[in-house]
Structure formats: C-alpha cells, structure tokens
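Supplementary Note 2. Why include the ligand at all?

Several targets in our set were suspected to adopt different conformations when bound, so apo predictions alone were not considered sufficient. For every target with a known small-molecule partner we therefore ran a joint prediction. The input for 4'-deoxy-4'-aminopyridoxal-5'-phosphate is given below.
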Amino acid sequence: MDLQQLIRKNIQALKPYSSARDEYTGEAMVFLDANENPFNAPYNRYPDPLQRELKVAISKQKSCEADQIFLGNGSDEPIDLLFRAFCEPGKDNIVTIDPTYGMYQVAADINNIEVRKVKLNDNYGFSAEALLEKTDKHTKLIFVCSPNNPTGNLLDNKELIKLIQTFEGLVILDEAYIDFAPGASLLPKLSHYENLVILQTFSKAWGMAGIRLGMAFANPEIIRVFNKIKYPYNINMLTQQKALELIEQEADKNQWVELLIQERKALEEKLSKLPFVVKVFPSDANFLLVKMYDARGIYDFLVENGIIVRDRSKVVLCDDSLRITVGSPEENQILLDKLNELL
Ligand code: PMP
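The joint prediction is reproduced in token form.
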C-alpha cells in the first residue's frame, strides 16, 4: 500500500493548525501563548491537543504503541476523518457489508462518497472475495464491523485477514463491541498490517458513552494523517481526566463485561422460550437481535410500557427483528416480565 497515494491531494498539501503547545510539553512558569483566562484553573487551560498521557495509559492497557493511537470524540470522529482524509467527494467510493452500523453510510453521505454494499450471507457471515469484487481504483476504504451491529456476530478472522492482505486501500475494522468477545480482537496483530485501522470505543464495555471517547489504532503514518486534520483540541480535559481514572479501575470493566456476557446468555435463553419469538441470533456483543412475529407491535407495546429497544425490522436481512441491549439483571427482568404479560 502506498499511503501517500491514498491521501486526498488537498490533505497532502494541507498546512495544519498548530499551537505553541504542540511542541512544548513541559511545565512552564507562565503560559501566555493561547489567550486563555488566567483565572478558574484548571479549566481555563486548553487540554493537551495530542492527549499524550492518556495515550500512554491506553497503550499499556492495549499492549500497543502510543503512536499507533488516535483518540476521537467517540469512534464516530475517526469514521468521519477517514472520509475527509482519503475520499475525494463525488469521485471515490467505499465498500461495506449490509446490514451494518449506520454511521459509515451517514459519514459517506455527508462527504458525498458512494457506498457499495455487499449483503451478508444467511448466517450473517461475509466473504472477502465478495467485498473485493465490488472494489475498483476509486475504492479507498472498506468498512467491516466485528462483532457486527445490528447482527451481533463476530466476522470470520480468516476472511478478515484475507481482505486486509488483498485490498490495496485501507480496511477499517470496527471493534466497538470486541470486549464482549474475549480473545477475538485483531489488535494484537495490528503491526502486521500497514493498511488496517481498528476502531474501538469507551462507550460500551468501559461504560463511558457519556464522556465521548473513541479510539483508532493504526500504523503511525495513518495516525499522523488523522492528527493533521482533526480539530485542535478534540478531546476535552474532563474526558481525558476521567478516562485516565477509569483505566486505573480496569477491574470494574472486566467485572461488568463478565456479568453482561452471563446476562446475554440468560436473556437469550429466556427470550427463546417466548412463543412469539422466532429466533434469537447468537451474539458476541452486548445486544441481541431477536426475530419475532409482529416485531413492530411488540416494539410499540414495550414503548407504551416505558421500555425502549431498537426496531430493526426495516433493516435489510433483519425483517421482524428488534435489537435489544443486554441491561442489568434488574432491567432484563423488567423486560421479560413485560413480555410475559403478552402470553
Ligand atoms: N461502531 C459501532 C459498531 C457502534 O455500534 C457504535 C455506537 N452505537 C459506534 C461505533 C460509535 O460509538 P461511539 O461514537 O460512542 O464511540
């Protein structure tokens, strides 16, 4: 892969915004460089534009290098930046699976990029071959998601690796839900593949959707492209501080994940027994895709009773299906009790 060749011409030529603190990282006696207010410390100061301390903590937690990490305002930020860095509006295209996470399409539409979709097979699996067939010289990115949203299943690692090894552009592997599939991440193999971008997030297993912190892992050359075009202070100070604190308490995350995996199994078993449930699809994530007779009717009934799930029945290959997040044991029981009222 020739990365320079993939980058949009205007981005190659871009002179990025810079601040005095891009270079200066020490503790100065007086900071008079950024027109900040001297009062109301510490919130008066701009945060570290490159989140260096947080990246070191994440690199230890993930066993990777700090310069292989980009942090964004949720993982939706790197998704958008990928389009802006690599896809020429009105000319380039991306390839992805169908169904999958909706933001790839939205980010493509915002950036005026064609999306070529390949339907998953009956078991919600995919073939690298089918995706590669859709590519041409204007295909810059291929997006895959594992475990996939909304189907919940992991994608086959052999097919993923074949895809990464064969495609000349970047493969974006969205691992937002990977903590719920222990041992399945391709992150330990990141350094083998110069065209691989792995997305993860603090929004799911880490329980931090509210602080908006997403991660992209890739070779440092790709990370430099993200850094070149991102907003200067894209991760605020409070988010950086809170994330540092929570990484210290990794044991909590591990406990939550363990409990949620148990609850996923229990909920799957109990939902499968309901007569109006046609099928609960196997899940490697923290949600279940559930096919039902009259999914819309059941959705409306749940909403009327204060329980919100996601109606996916209009999504391709998901007809009559609701996507249900695995909640706390209490929340799951409330859901089951309500559904049992329908019997
Ligand atoms: N990827 C996938 C597959 C998702 O389902 C989501 C959120 N629903 C995201 C990325 C975005 O996560 P965030 O922006 O909160 O990091």
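The pocket of 4'-deoxy-4'-aminopyridoxal-5'-phosphate is lined by residues 74-76, 101, 145, 149, 174, 176, 201, 203, 209, 214 (CB under 6 Å). Residues 310 and 323 are 5 Å apart (CA to CA). Comparable summaries for the other entries are listed in the accompanying table.
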